[in-house]
Design brief:
Elements (H helix, E strand, L loop, with lengths): L1 H13 L6 H32 L6 H24 L1 H9 L6 H19 L4 H11 L14 H23 L8 H23 L8 H7 L5 H10 L2
Helix pairs in contact: 1-2, 2-3, 2-9, 2-10, 3-6, 5-6, 8-9
Length: 232
């Protein structure tokens, strides 16, 4: 998801439009889209887990998952504001290479574990860690590169594996079903029109609403995670 925002930001940067109001609206919408998507994922994961044991989630359980998701994300952000900077400052005193990467991974895995422990998808915790681990918190470390650059080799290995796993779960024979293709085409059209309607909802004057609507169309990673959670 963060990768998707980075691609969008790169395109806007290449077009020299990154600092325009339209671009800021698009990137802000991408963040909100990620957060809402993760909350929906938590509900979907809960429903799938309940279905596997022959149960159905009631409205109260769904509301509980939504509240837990908001509380968890809010708590993670509060942790990032008050605790993480102090913790990383202490770790920076070790003056040992590799601490920056190890600390980031441990923190991400810890939040992923906590998210799973409270009944949410592990990716919710990992996403929260990404929101918290800002470059400004790592200024005291020995490394002269950013945390994103340190994680790039790991992402180079794991991201293709993720897409391979998603591809393995796709059954090509389903594309021969006109019903599946019809529903997919319908959802695509509705999604495109919906983004354009959202662009028209921008209340500020002198903004290119068509650009905002088009810029919000490219989304997909959360949908792939939904499919992976639901299983074949």
């Amino acid at each position: 998801m963060r990768h998707q925002r980075r691609i969008t930001a790169r395109v806007l940067k290449d077009l020299r439009r990154l600092h325009t109001k339209e671009s800021q609206i698009i990137l802000g919408a991408a963040v909100i889209d990620d957060v809402l998507g993760l909350i929906i994922l938590a509900v979907v994961a809960g429903m799938v887990g309940a279905a596997q044991v022959g149960q159905l989630l009631n409205v109260g359980s769904i509301v509980r998952l939504i509240v837990i998701s908001f509380v968890f994300l809010g708590g993670a952000l509060a942790l990032g504001i008050y605790v993480v900077p102090k913790l990383l400052n202490q770790l920076a005193r070790l003056r040992t290479s590799g601490v920056m990467l190890v600390a980031s991974l441990v923190f991400a895995f810890a939040l992923a574990y906590l998210a799973n422990a409270v009944g949410l998808a592990a990716i919710v915790g990992a996403f929260a860690a990404g929101l918290v681990l800002e470059d400004v918190h790592f200024r005291g470390f020995r490394e002269e590169i950013t945390i994103e650059q340190l994680l790039k080799p790991i992402a180079t290995i794991l991201v293709p594996i993720f897409f391979v796993l998603m591809g393995i779960q796709v059954r090509l024979e389903t594309f021969a079903d006109p019903t599946v293709l019809g529903i997919a085409a319908g959802l695509t059209v509705v999604a495109i029109i919906g983004k354009q309607v959202c662009g028209l909802g921008v209340i500020e004057k002198d903004l290119d609403r068509l650009t905002v609507g088009v810029g919000m169309i490219p989304r997909g990673e959360v949908g792939l995670i939904f499919a992976g959670s639901a299983g074949p």
